[in-house]
Structure formats: C-alpha cells, structure tokens
Amino acid sequence: MPLSASLARGVAPTTPGTLHARTVTGELSAPPRQGLTVRFGRGEKPDVDLGVGVDDLRVSRRHGELTYRQGMWWLRNTGQQLVRLPRGGMMHLATEPIPLATGYTPLFVKGSGYREHLVELYVAGHDDQGPVSRRRAETVRPETWALDDDERLLLVVLGQRYLLYEEDPRPLTYATAAKQLAYLRPDGNWSERRIEHRIETVRRRLHHTGFRYQLLHDKSQGRPADNSLLHNLIRGLVESTTLVPPDLDLMEDDTAWPDSAP
C-alpha cells in the first residue's frame, strides 16, 4: 500500500505502533497498517517517501524501507552502502529485515568519504504522544559512576589517551602505568598485580549498574586474548563524563616521567 494513500486517511499520533521518521530534508508519520511500506533514499517521490543524502551519490536512490507486518515495523537495507545501527550493528543489502523496538532508533547511511546520513526513527508505544519538543525543559545530566580517589587516578593514568581524545585510543599497559604511578605515588605500592586487582574490582562493581559496555568475560565464548574489557571500561567512563580532561591534572607534570610508550 502506498504511503501517500495511508497518510490521506490521517494518522493518529497516539496510536501504538505509529512510525515517525525524520532526516535533514524532511519528516513523516505513518500509521501501523498491515503491509504499509515507507521507503527512504536519495531519490524523489514517488520512488521514496523520505529523502536522505540527497546530494551524495554513494547513497542509493532507494536505500532502505520499513514495512509494517506482524505488529511491528521491519527495517530492510535496499541500498549498495551499509546502514549502521545502534551498538555497532550493520545492515547489508543481503541482511535479513530486523524489527524496530518501540521508542527511538537512529540509523546512519554510509555516504562518500566520512559522511554518514542520519535517519531518525521513532515508534510510538501505548499512551505515547510520539517525539515532542522539550526546548524549555531542564537538561538531564549524564549518568556518571562513583570512583574513589585511587581508582580515579589509576583510570586516568591508564586512559590518558582517551582523555586526550586521540583517534582509536588504547589503554596503557599495566607495566607502563605502574611506572607512572610509582613516580606519582612512591608510597602507593602500585604493582602490576595490584593494578589488575583494582581494575577487576571496578569492572565487577559497575557490571551490575547498567554500564553501557561489556565489563566481564563471557565464559561461553572463552577468555579474550586482549584488553578489550579494560578498553570498554575506560571508553564508558569517558563517554559518560565520569572521567573528563581536567582529570589529567591528577598526573601533574609528566615531563619527568618514564617513557609512557607501551
């Protein structure tokens, strides 16, 4: 069923399952009607209902579509470039359609060079007015995580490259961190073993708090061979603003430190 025909009948914003979609070039709402398909891409109507990446030749003229069936909106990539989903997911032309959850879902259509084109999707739930303007409301502060002084210093040293916002940062090794901590806190007994123990304590404590990234080993997949869990810990703390660039002041003057290269 064409989208235009469905919209002509009217869309009730409070109807559970109503789809709201928006890009920089337009927006629309579509009712939860069996068989209804909403198409997005670089092309023009009637080929697509919502334009995205209209000036980018890497975006297909019909790059994706959402079809309502079985009580849900199903997303399919119909374009040549990948569609990036939240939490690192990707969709290829050959990927099976996936259902959208109620609430907000951002999609990113890969374009030319580093360009990615945002498609914002919102599926209304029960007693839901859909996305509404909240320009006058108070800003919700980021959720941060409690760290004691030793934990903060340790994580700042290990994650200093993240706090400098370097491209593709990695944590310092425990050996390198132990050398820097020995300089900063000569009486702190910061051995590699102690560092490993303190980091594991933090990971286990935050694991049960809704932390964004995996912090404990998945025993069913075996123990990872790299420091991916430490990377996840520091990344989540920096992204949540639990650790911020001014925390680098805890390391004082680093000119006299041992070489920090791992």
UniProtKB/TrEMBL annotation:
Residues of the FHA domain: 38-81
UniProt KW Transport keyword: no
Record key words, sorted: Phosphoprotein
Protein origin, superkingdom: Bacteria
InterPro entries registered for this protein in UniProt: FHA_dom, SMAD_FHA_dom_sf
Keyword ATP-binding listed: no
A Pfam family reported for this protein in Swiss-Prot or TrEMBL: FHA
Protein name, entry field: FHA domain-containing protein
Protein's organism: Streptomyces umbrinus
Lineage: Bacteria, Bacillati, Actinomycetota, Actinomycetes, Kitasatosporales
